[in-house]
Design brief:
The chain has ten helices and 21 strands. It is α/β, with parallel strands linked by helices.
Length: 459
């Protein structure tokens, strides 16, 4: 009979702990009786007394009861709902140190998921922001009611308590303003607010997106049903109170789910899109299209991609998971031809429009999966020299990685927003590719997110 493993650490147990590093979610990591302990809010170098909240056979979770020795990099978080909200994890850590820790989070992922000799790898210093606040160009605030008052914000970590956020200091100021005004309009005209528990009410979420360079704003109201009560009044009040809003959309999500958007989007008023400018490019963004949330850092990120691609004007490039074509367009002037693909048809339509508008004739876009399209092109005699990929947090599809190993482009440029899936994918690719370098870029200051650009060369 298999012996049950006895827990070395028990719930409610208290003990001193030295924090060694930050975990992938921004929590402090220490070791007690050779077991890993995760402590939210604790910083590397701190000596704390903790109380265990959850004990697992391989690790424990704990909270800080007392700080015996503070980190010299600890600062007071400027946000008033910082600890309840959980949207940011690192406001209490000095920004220059956040950049160092993010590089370390990348290293930890490589240590955990690869067999690389880390000390021999070129892992560069994190590229940060001059002003690491008010950078996000899109907000998605859930609606609720508190004592009859309409509130908008985010659900607290590990709970279904909605935290009202009148001003989020990592959001562009205009998205805060627009959300607050729309919330007021819904309250003024007693539009039924959706209740998660009873599943009654209509309006669930206010999604606000701003083109930072153009000043154009799009509002999308996510509703539980197609019928939006007092729709005409809502539209006319938004136009009256918010002249910067050029596009009003409605998305219908009837499901009991934490996923924000449903499948159906309706155009209510104004334009279907908003425009955003990044250097010489203007992008058309439809309501569902993916676009980077930090335009200032996006320029730095894409310039890193261009550097990693090392173009001479003769290359054939595949832009996999291409979205609205942002990366491909950035590279187009240095390539012979670019072929982008994505499984979201609206994104591909936007990509085609964006290419046409900029007179980029060497970029072509296709709806479909890279793992299906690329082998077909190779069979037709079209061999890519460089493949650029910017996958979702889940990383690259295993079939896509198999395809890369078969197609063997000379260069592979991997843009990642998740160090763990990046590390796993690099291990798979390492059978045919050498990891030349990794360049972390801070796209989300004050959070634990780490974005990076990795250059891989065919061995």
């Amino acid at each position: 009979m298999k012996k049950e493993k006895t827990l070395l650490i028990k719930e409610k147990q208290q003990f001193p702990l030295t924090i060694k590093r930050l975990g992938i979610n921004g929590e402090g990591v220490g070791y007690f009786k050779k077991q890993v302990v995760f402590v939210p809010g604790a910083l590397p170098g701190e000596e704390v007394v903790v109380e265990v909240t959850k004990a697992h056979p391989k690790y424990a979770e704990a909270i800080v009861k007392k700080v015996r020795k503070r980190s010299e990099h600890r600062v007071k978080a400027p946000c008033i709902v910082y600890e309840q909200c959980g949207g940011c994890q690192l406001q209490h850590l000095e920004y220059s140190q956040q950049l160092k820790e993010k590089r370390d989070i990348l290293i930890q992922a490589l240590e955990r998921h690869t067999r690389f000799k880390i000390e021999e790898m070129d892992i560069r210093e994190t590229i940060g922001m001059d002003n690491p606040w008010h950078y996000r160009n899109k907000s998605q605030f859930q609606l609720g009611e508190d004592h009859g008052k309409v509130i908008a914000g985010m659900y607290s970590i590990d709970s279904h308590r909605l935290i009202n956020i009148p001003e989020c200091i990592v959001q562009q100021p205009v998205t805060n303003k627009v959300t607050n005004v729309v919330k007021q309009i819904l309250a003024d005209f007693k539009v039924p607010i959706y209740n998660e528990k009873t599943r009654k009410g209509i309006v669930r979420t206010i999604v606000t997106r701003v083109g930072v360079e153009t000043g154009q704003v799009q509002i999308m109201l996510v509703t539980a049903k197609k019928e939006l009560p007092r729709k005409d009044v809502i539209i006319s009040e938004i136009k009256k109170r918010l002249p910067e809003v050029v596009s009003i959309m409605q998305n219908i999500n009837p499901k009991k789910t934490s996923i924000i958007l449903g499948d159906e989007t309706i155009h209510l008023s104004g334009e279907n899109i908003v425009e955003e400018r990044l250097e010489e490019f203007t992008y058309e963004l439809s309501a569902r299209a993916f676009f980077q949330l930090n335009p200032v850092q996006t320029v730095k990120l894409y310039n890193q991609v261009k550097e990693a691609a090392g173009l001479t004007g003769k290359e054939k490039i595949v832009d996999a998971y291409c979205g609205v074509g942002t990366i491909g367009l950035w590279l187009a002037d240095g390539a012979e031809e670019i072929r982008g693909m994505d499984i979201i048809p609206e994104g591909i339509e936007d990509a085609k429009k964006n290419a046409k508008k900029h007179g980029v004739e060497n970029a072509h876009y296709f709806t479909g999966k890279a793992e299906e399209l690329m082998p077909k092109w190779v069979k037709e005699g079209w061999q890519p020299d460089v493949v650029v990929v910017d996958p979702p947090r889940t990383g690259c599809d295993s079939k896509f990685l198999e395809t890369i190993l078969k197609v063997k482009p000379k260069k592979f440029v991997y843009v990642s927003c998740n160090p763990s899936t990046l590390a796993k994918d690099l291990q798979v690719l390492s059978s045919k590719y050498k990891v030349e370098y990794l360049q972390p870029v801070d796209m989300f200051p004050q959070t634990a997110h780490v974005e990076s650009v990795t250059q891989l060369l065919l061995k």
